[in-house]
Amino acid sequence: MRHIRSVALALGLILVAQGHAAASLLGNTVAATLQVPFGTTLTNFGTAVVADPGVEFIATATGGAGAVTLATMNFSAFQLVIDSFFDVTYLSGAARGFVFTNSNGWGSVSLNAGTTWGAFDASRISVVSNDLRLDFSGLVRPAGSALILDFAFPTTAVPEPASLAPFGGALLGLGALRRRRRA
Questions:
Q1: Which range, 8-12, 64-68, 88-92, 136-140, is most confident?
Q2: Residue 172 falls within a domain, yes or no?
Q3: Among 57, 122, 145, 163, which residue is least crowded by beta carbons within 10 Å?
Q4: Is 25 exposed, middle or buried (0-12, 13-18, 19+ CB in 10 A)?
């Protein structure tokens, strides 16, 4: 009888305790484009599954010396780092820049204090539906600089397995049946 009570108590504790999982970007499929202006794709960088660590996208340009890397875009679980390898000046006017699309959404986005892109500030970050837009119009992106964004996602409850409650009920029923037979 004591064994049945111990099992029932353990199952009860399992049913009451629910774990929590924090969402992240890992495993999400992200698409990247350079749009000039927003809504008009100039360069499509394709799609990639976010893996940590790893460079998901590379912006290149082809010239007399062949292809050169202008920037890398590296997503991790909670961050995007864009490293610049050449000075790039963006024209003023209509909003233009990188657009990243994630069908799972972006959570909340903030500018990391480690950003070294001079005049880039939080007002240049917008989330429209599932698009993360970074407006570079009128900016100079110096070689050796980095743009760093942080992502925060709400914590979601992890439901217990559906078969655990009936299993616990069955054990309690067996315990009651066994007790009744002894009486």
A1: 136-140
A2: no
A3: 163
A4: buried
Domain count, the chain: 1
Residue 49 located in a structural domain: yes
Q: In which band, very low, low, confident or very high, does the pLDDT at 20 lie, cut at 50, 70 and 90?
A: very low
- Does 10 fall in a domain? no
State the residue range of the domain holding 143: 22-155
pLDDT at 135: 94
Q: Is the Cβ–Cβ distance between 26 and 51 less than 8 Å?
A: yes
pTM (global) more than 0.85: no
**DSSP secondary structure letters along 63-118:** ETTEEEEEEEEEE-SSEEEEEE-S-EEPPSSS--EEEEEETT---EEEE-TT---T
